[in-house]
């Protein structure tokens, strides 16, 4: 097949989901039909976009150039790439599932056309970001995602904390926009172009400079803000006021985009050591603190929110360490896992009922002590079986600490009968996870690793400290009462950030419950100005 035709076909298939979701947003905006018919059309378009996203991934894997170059279009402003095709399929799969779930979950709610329009606009903007091949497109698409998310976060406009969380996110997003603009300006001044391929070629030619190093720092800080790492994390926990499918969209799709951007900009991070250390520092602290905080929370959705912060911290830590393949697989796996958990959150009611009847079993201290050496033995054995050298030795130790809690077993007498079966299943899971990690190097994602050994040792020390903290909370809950209060509050970082946000950009939110807020972007004659009932 002619290479130019293959390139054009790849690009058009990659662009199609964005066009279909834009059409879905316009259809919902202008629709005057009953909401049931609106949702049927919306879901039909999302599934059509899903089919095209799948076709785009197949075409990317089968027809992409052997050198891994992106298939550009629109005069180089947009381009399709292998990793973007994987994320596009994932995002559209989530969008289709969330659309079907929302059509039932929101039954009877007013302003459903507003919701459908905003949801489609978010998906269209995400697809556009995944095609970005120029600084201007990247900045505009990421800003558009935040703007389209705002009506979803404020869907219940009479809830004060929903408005506060949306305001904090808006302030954080504007700061991230300024940082992205600064990163673009520095890189543009160095290369004379805003095109990403020009930047990659400039770096590959060995023409790194202080301007590019500072561009990497600004990019890293922008991603840290967009992915809700500490201390700007509070809004991600407080948006639980929004409908459950909005939480699924946010946690499984939108905040993960920071990982995609960092993987895309791996060449720039390679010439900015300070940017990589920033990602390691913020990622490690967020993973450690959020991992401990979620142990103190009982609300299922809040627990999942803190889990997302911990996972985002770990993902950015992987990028800072130069383990981009692991970050890419982490992004895909976390998105599917978190979407399932949010859309299945109602099942927690039944689980809590069973816990009240059977009691909550504590884990055995002996199993916590033995879990780490057993996990280390499994990881290093699998690594040796795969030929060794698949990843640095310190990453093997980090993975062992991550897998170790799987090997914990209950200490309660009534739970001991199931220990052999549970332990066998845990060992099998640890082996499978390590094998999956070993196959990462062969995954067709179009990215490569660039390990940073000194930062890896720091990450290993941090993960060991986190494991000890988790074990202490499990074994001696009363002995750590004082620090437990601080952990429960996330060390009060969000309170300080909220204080400064409201000082710098005051907004009325506490009185929102007195009267419902008007429909967002209310335009006469459009879905935004009607109830949709």
TrEMBL record:
| Gene Ontology CC | endomembrane system; plasma membrane
Membrane topology of the entry: Multi-pass membrane protein
Q: Does the keyword Transmembrane apply?
A: yes
* Keyword Coiled coil in annotation: no
Give GO terms: molecular function aspect only.
Answer: NADH dehydrogenase (ubiquinone) activity; NADH dehydrogenase activity
Taken from the record, one Pfam family name reads Proton_antipo_M
Q: Start and end of every NADH:quinone oxidoreductase/Mrp antiporter transmembrane domain?
A: 132-386
Q: Which domain of life is it from?
A: Bacteria
State the protein's purpose: Part of an energy-coupled inorganic carbon pump.
Q: How does it assemble?
A: Forms a complex with DabA.
Q: Write down what this protein is called.
A: Probable inorganic carbon transporter subunit DabB
